[in-house]
């Protein structure tokens, strides 16, 4: 799936910071976010609700609305810092070179326009194509994502389709202009397990066929273990561990990553209670000093409560923790 590791990254994010303004101040939802993504690579961005995954996705392509604000950092796509582009320049990138699939297609599909009208608009925004050619491209793309009778569906309205069909339309729309990067924000969360499995299988096939890089935002480790090349674990607005799928899942170094793995129901012996992470993720306005995970961590010390965790690395696997797990002794 991945391209040559020696090539320049397709996307390079460095020290990205997004805050939300409230009456008593500005609070970071994304803080010092840094990672790279190569052409054709699939990165799974995982974490609990409130970890900053979705805000990170929106921040990458400048879709953060007030009271949110991207205040610093770089988002370099093919060497160009997207944060320095004008609104018009960024609009030409979005939907063409970079596309996004949102969690709920009902919030992105216009209820008063047919599927075909909306998809054809996505084409006409970026190139001049005659209506017949644009319509056929829409039909062909709907076929690719597993929609039956696409010639009929293209003339239907969103409310006439099932949830799984609407999500396939959202995926097809994202693929229309052959983007080099797709950001998918938990696109299968609201679907039943069977439909979710079908869409994931289709996305794997499409990603391999097109070579499109993919950032898959999810809380489901099972999904990214099947889909992704690398996993980035987010907590309190930052990445606490990142590496190849097997490295992170088999030799987790951060206690939070271990907590997520232990919380997966299928890994718990029959009859035993789930080994859940104690407590809850900190709110935006109450981030603790030091390591943000220390109030919930079984390895926390006084150092964790006061000092920022250092970045440690072994090959492509890196983590931020004062007391990282020893993979030979991981419980």
UniProtKB/TrEMBL annotation:
Pfam families: ABC_tran (PF00005), oligo_HPY (PF08352). The keyword Nucleotide-binding applies. It is found in: Cell inner membrane. Keywords: ATP-binding, Cell membrane, Membrane, Nucleotide-binding, Transport. GO terms for molecular function: ATP binding. The keyword Cell membrane applies. PROSITE patterns: ABC_TRANSPORTER_1, ABC_TRANSPORTER_2. It comes from the Bacteria. It is a peripheral membrane protein. Residues 11-261 form the ABC transporter domain. Belongs to the ABC transporter superfamily. This is ABC transporter ATP-binding protein.
């Amino acid at each position: 799936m991945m391209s040559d590791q020696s090539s320049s990254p397709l996307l390079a994010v460095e020290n990205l910071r997004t805050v939300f303004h409230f009456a008593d101040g500005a609070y970071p939802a994304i803080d010092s976010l840094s990672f790279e993504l190569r052409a054709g690579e699939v990165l799974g961005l995982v974490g609990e609700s409130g970890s900053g995954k979705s805000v990170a996705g929106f921040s990458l392509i400048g879709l953060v609305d007030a009271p949110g604000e991207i205040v610093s950092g770089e988002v370099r796509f093919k060497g160009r810092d997207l944060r320095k582009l004008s609104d018009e320049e960024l609009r030409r990138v979005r939907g063409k070179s970079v596309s996004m699939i949102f969690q709920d297609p009902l919030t992105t599909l216009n209820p008063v326009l047919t599927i075909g009208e909306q998809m054809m608009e996505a084409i006409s925004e970026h190139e001049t194509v005659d209506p017949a050619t644009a319509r056929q491209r829409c039909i062909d793309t709907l076929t690719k994502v597993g929609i039956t009778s696409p010639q009929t569906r293209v003339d239907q309205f969103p409310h006439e389709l099932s949830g799984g069909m609407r999500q396939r339309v959202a995926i097809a729309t994202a693929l229309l202009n052959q983007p080099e990067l797709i950001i998918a924000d938990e696109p299968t969360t609201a679907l039943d397990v069977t439909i979710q499995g079908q869409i994931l299988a289709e996305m794997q096939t499409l990603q391999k066929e097109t070579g499109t890089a993919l950032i898959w935002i999810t809380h489901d480790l099972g999904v990214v273990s099947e889909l992704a090349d690398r996993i980035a674990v987010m907590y309190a607005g930052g990445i606490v561990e990142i590496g190849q799928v097997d490295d992170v899942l088999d030799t987790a170094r951060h206690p939070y990553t271990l907590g997520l793995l232990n919380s997966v129901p299928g890994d718990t012996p029959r009859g035993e209670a789930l080994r859940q992470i104690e407590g809850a993720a900190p709110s935006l306005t109450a981030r603790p000093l030091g390591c943000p995970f220390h109030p919930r961590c079984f390895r926390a010390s006084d150092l964790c409560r006061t000092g920022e965790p250092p970045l440690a690395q072994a090959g492509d696997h890196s983590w931020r923790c004062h007391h990282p797990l020893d993979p030979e002794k991981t419980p």
